[in-house]
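Give me structure tokens for this 222-residue protein.
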Amino acid sequence: MIFDLFGTLILSESDERAHEALSQRLSTLHRNVFRPEEHLSLYLKFVTRGLPSLEATWLALKELLKKYGIKSAVTKEELLRMHIEFHAMHATLRDDGLDALRLARTHARKVGLLSDGDKEIVHAIIDALKIRHFFDAIVTFDDCMAKKPDPRLFRACLIKLGVPANEAVMIGDRCVDVEGAKHAGMMAVLLGGQQECKVLPDYITESLLDAVRFSLNLEPTR
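Here you go.
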């Protein structure tokens, strides 16, 4: 069984709050020469283009520094540390997140975490929430330098877990989770039914705990 992180195990608002707070901090550090919304808007533009979150945060700041003709109040390394710190600080598990992880850890053969987020951020969140012990394998953007739905990410997680694709289930909240999983030969559960995916999931539910229960039924009897 493989879990997505952002929007699946942790609330989507966690990431939004982290970036809003970071953009506010950067604006303050630069004496409010630019508005927090300007940085956040540029960040979202770069992320939409496929850039990793850490790099997008830095490039958004660089563009604003150039626009307003000011020097940076932080180094790239300092900004990246802030980026990681804010994500860890604002990460919030779903209400049924712990129960879902406990059920998976108790009954699933192997449990993995698959995110196309930056490695440093993903691991900082896992440690902040104290959930590392639930996972047998963790795969992030840095493992394949690829974004979902690239099946390489999903295959990398399967290899780390030592589980064949036809015995694995991916639980995620986006169509890219479903598409990548299915193209890698896995089954897929979509958390939330507000989207219409081109590739259909095997099951749709609003509850993470329900997603885990369904996934356990799909796994072969040991």
